[in-house]
Amino acid sequence: MTPSRVLVTGVSNPLGAEVARRLTAQVPRLFGCDVADPVSAIEDMDFVHADTRLSVIGKLVRQLRIDTVVHLAVLVESRHDERAVHETDVIGTMNVLVGCSGPSSPVRHLVVKSSQAIYGAGGGDPSFFSEEMINWDRPVGDVTRDLLEMEQLVSEFALRTNQCDVTVLRLGYRVSEDTCLGRYLSLPIVPVFAGFDPRLQLLHEDDAAEAIVRATLGRHPGAFNVAGEGVVLLSQAIDIMGGRPAPVLPPYWRWLSRLGLRTLGRVDLPRHLADFLSFGSVMDCSRLEQEFRWRPAYSSRQTMDSLALGKTVEAIEPPSPPQEYELQKFLQQRRRRALRLSN
Hints:
CATH architecture: 3-Layer(aba) Sandwich
Distance between the termini: 25 Å
Strand order of the largest sheet: 3-2-1-4-5-6-11
Structural class: alpha/beta
């Protein structure tokens, strides 16, 4: 069944805005919600200020008769404090699930953005992580723990809600000016953990948006790893960007090492990213290719090349000035009035 009334959460970030822009041409009615304004004006999207951390999200779903929810309001970035990340990822997702559940819910399809960070990273990891290789018992940082809790909630929802198909996309690490990893690799002097040169598997922003759109328009229940083909070593990534590595203490001296990264590189790395830059992490994405009949267009190397060429990795329109956003709201109001009169 093709979705007809789609709600996208988290449209104030570049990835959410790009997904919404692509969906406007493919679904009859598109709604977006977030606590902040969208990064770019999308005339064909009806936008409402709403916080997924509040229970009002359930009322919004029912009042708008939403049949498909694309939940992108999931944080993995270090610029947010731990409490905000937990409230958004866990409490926010819980509210979205409550809004999608029950016999009165019109929702028949749910797409949830997750992250490769859910696997963590360590010296004893397998060469590739498949979707079943979730280690619930390993010591993890706050972001990984929140993602594990979030996916547990989503899994329980999928088991008890037969009328709703649930798709979880574990997006690979992305590099752009909007991500901590992108800013780190763009430094002229890049602090690295001494004695470590991990394998980095990356995902281009364009492929991340395309995977979410395909999951929204199709029916692919289950969890899927999403990342570019191949890997690049951290040393290769730094060389591609024209930077120079500066070794600091090994990651076993975690607190001092991260302090050194922060002092030398002006980048505050969260634990899950520090682990990734120590031991690397590579996912098996064969399930995605088999089910979606699609694979990311950019390999990990091509994703780095794109960043090095100075191209913005987000394929989005530039942020809208305030007057353009006001124009968007005015046009939306006119369109709604016209719809009421025609009915």
